[in-house]
Amino acid sequence: MATKRIANKVHKQASRLLREGYIQREPAWYRAVLNHPPLPVPAREPPSRSHFDAPLNAPLTRPAGSKKIQPLKIQYIEDEVRRQFFRDHPFEAFRQTTLVEGATVESEHPIRGAEWTRLRQRGRNPTAEDAIRYAVNLYEHHGMDLSSAYASAVAQFRSLRSELLVARAVAQTEAEQLGMEFGPSQVEITFAKEEKAFHTLREDGAQSQAAETERKRWKAAVEREGPPEQWTRGQEYTRLWKEGVRPVYAPVFVEPEIKPEGLEQPEQDAQRVAASSDYMRIISR
């Protein structure tokens, strides 16, 4: 008959079986469970916490009168320092970082703890994580409050970055004086990409305009001069017909011609064309 086991009783039962000789070898999980035993009953009650991974000024246990059964928040000091650091130095997040898949975790730097008194001890080109770890190290091993530790770490980080920028500028100037020719900078590459994008936009606009013109080639495009007049329902047309005024359509199709007697004006040719045809003839039935 199978019995129901409680989580915090399993390793105790395994200890009794090992002691009596029913189990010859320790299970693979035995030592790990002894070092980190399961939660006591009831399992939903969170254990007491330490300040190592608890938020600042937060209770380390659930209040007795609280009815919410939920785990306490896990937050390290590095999280607060890192959030403030990248809020003050947002462009540090855009620096290139090499991510190697399957790489092992690097061992801790030999200079740490009370021996780590200056950020320069870990190199003249510190990263953002070096500054964050240095601030936490000052807080934990040198008795400084977190605000003072952060201010000291940021000041040393900016000083080292300034020295590095000046050294690079001087080295580049010396190299150019000796005849070195450098390729385009990142700013120039970005401007070239923007110019290429602008040219592509202009080409796309020209193609779209050409396609629109081809689509509208067989549509009537009437060009009017001046504001459009009101529609008279043909009354103006009838009045001009009764007065013998002929409409002139010829100027659209007539071009000036050079003859022996001189240049013929389009208006004269238009009147001649209009007089030769009666556009206002009404056929009565």
Describe this structure in words.
This protein is mainly α and 285 residues long. Among the domains are: 1-41, no CATH class; 48-62 and 70-93 and 112-179, no CATH class. The protein has helices spanning 7-20, 30-35, 77-88, 128-141, 146-177, 186-215, 235-242, 266-276, and strands at residues 258-259, 262-263. Strands 1-2 form a two-stranded antiparallel ribbon. A hairpin with a 2-residue loop joins strand 1 and strand 2. The model is unreliable at 250-254 and 277-285 (pLDDT under 50). GO terms for molecular function: structural constituent of ribosome. Its main location: mitochondrion.
Essential attributes:
285 residues, mainly alpha, Ribosomal_mS23_fun, 2 strands, ribonucleoprotein
In short:
With 285 residues, this protein is mainly alpha-helical. The chain has helices spanning 7-20, 30-35, 77-88, 128-141, 146-177, 186-215, 235-242, 266-276, and strands at 258-259, 262-263.
Rg over alpha carbons: 45 Å
C-alpha geometry: elongated
Percent helix:
40-55%
How many helical elements? 8
GO molecular function, one term: structural constituent of ribosome
Family: Belongs to the mitochondrion-specific ribosomal protein mS23 family.
Main location: mitochondrion
Subcellular location: Mitochondrion
